[in-house]
Amino acid sequence: MINIFLCDDTPLQLRCIHDFVESYMVNKPARIFDYNSPTDLLSGLSEHGADIAVLDISLGQANGIDLANECCRLAAVLL
C-alpha cells in the first residue's frame, strides 16, 4: 500500500490535487491523506509514514521546502 500525503493550505487546491491523484491511482493500492497544515502532516507522518508527499511551496508562515526537509529527517528517524 502506497501512502500519499498532500499538503496545501488552500482547500480548493487541496481538493483538486486530491482528485487528480485519486484518478491517477485508480486500481492501485494507495491511501491518500490530505493535510492543510505542516503540523498536521508531520503528525500523520509519524502515524502512517509517507511514500510520496505533494507539498505546497507556500504554506502561510511555513515553507514547503523546509517541510520536505523535516519529512526526510523524520523519516530517517522512524526507520
Could you write a compact summary of the structure shown?
This protein is α/β, with parallel strands linked by helices. It is built from three helices and five strands, in the order βαβαβββα.
Please characterize this protein's 3D structure.
There is one protein chain. With 79 residues, this protein is an alpha/beta fold. It has a three-stranded parallel sheet with strand order 2-1-3, sandwiched between helices. It has a two-stranded antiparallel ribbon with strand order 4-5. Helix 1 links the parallel strand 1 and strand 2. Helix 2 runs parallel beside helix 3. The two termini are 17 Å apart.
- Between the first and last Cα atoms, what is the distance in angstroms? 17 Å
Q: Name the overall outline.
A: globular
Structure classification: alpha/beta
Share in helix: 40-55%
Spans of 5+ residues with little confidence (pLDDT < 50)?
A: none
Largest sheet data? 3 strands, parallel
Tally of alpha and pi helices: 3
Number of strands: 5
Q: Provide the spatial order of strands within the biggest beta sheet.
A: 2-1-3
| SSE order, one letter for each helix or strand | EHEHEEEH
What's the rounded overall pLDDT mean? 91
Radius of gyration: 12 Å
Percent strand: 25-35%
